[in-house]
Amino acid sequence: MSAVLTGRPGRPAAATREAALALATDRFLAGERVDVRAIASELGLARATMHRWFGTRASLLGEVLAELAEERLRVIRARTRATGADALLECFDAFNRELVATMGLRALLVQEQERALHILTSSGGIVQPRMVAAIERLICAEVDDGAFTPTLPPGTLAYAIVRLAESFLYNDAIIGIRGDTERLLEVQALLLGPRSAA
C-alpha cells in the first residue's frame, strides 16, 4: 500500500520534537509568549505529545533557554582568539552582554518574573545545571590545552561563574534584568586569576 493511502487525509506528517523546540525558540526570540497549545496546533500535534516531549511549559522554556545558551557559548568561544583565562573571561563577558540584550529574555522576565527567575536559576531545573556544565567544558578545554590553571576545581569554578552571573544580571525587581555586566566582569576576572599582559 502506498504512503499516500496510509497517511491520514488532510493532516501533514507528524512534526518532530526538534520542530516544536525550534518553533518555541523562534517565539521566545521574537519576545512572544511561548504558548504550548498554539505550538501544538500550528504543528498539528496533540497537546499530550508536547507534554510527553517536554513535560510542563516551564520545562519547554528551560530547554529553549539552555539550548540557546549552549549554542551561543560555542559560537563565542569559536570566534575568540585568546587562550587560557583571557579566553574564558572574554567569552563570559561577551555571553553576559548578549544575554542582557536578548529581547526574549527581557520580555519573559517582565511578563512572568517569578516563573522566569525560577526557570533560570533553579539548581533542580534545566538551565542552571546545563549552564554550569557548559562553562565547565570551556574551563576544562583550557586546562587540557595547558593554557589555564584554575584556582578552584573546574566544577566549583563553573558553578561560581554561573551563580555570580545570576546575581549580577537578573533582578528580582520590576525591571527584570539588572544587566550589571561591568562589575560582573571585574568579579569574574578575580575568580579566573592572572591573565596575560595582552
Describe the structure.
The chain is elongated and about 55 Å long. Helix 2 crosses helix 5, helix 6 runs antiparallel to helix 11 and helix 7 crosses helix 8. With 198 residues, the chain is an all-alpha fold. It contains 11 helices and no strands.
Defining traits:
198 residues, mainly alpha, 11 helices, 70% helix, 0% strand, disordered N terminus
What coarse outline follows from CA principal-axis ratios?
elongated
Mean residue pLDDT: 89
By DSSP (H or I, 4+ residues per run), the number of helices equals 11
Please give the number of β-strands: 0
Helicity, in percent? 55-70%
Report the sheet with the most strands, covering strand number, pairing sense and barrel closure: none
Terminal Cα span: 69 Å
Order of helices and strands: HHHHHHHHHHH
Briefly summarize what is shown.
The protein has 198 residues and is an all-alpha fold. It has helices at residues 3-6, 17-29, 36-43, 47-54, 57-79, 84-101, 103-111, 113-121, 127-144, 154-169, 181-192.
What's the arrangement of secondary structure elements?
Layout: H1 3-6, H2 17-29, H3 36-43, H4 47-54, H5 57-79, H6 84-101, H7 103-111, H8 113-121, H9 127-144, H10 154-169, H11 181-192
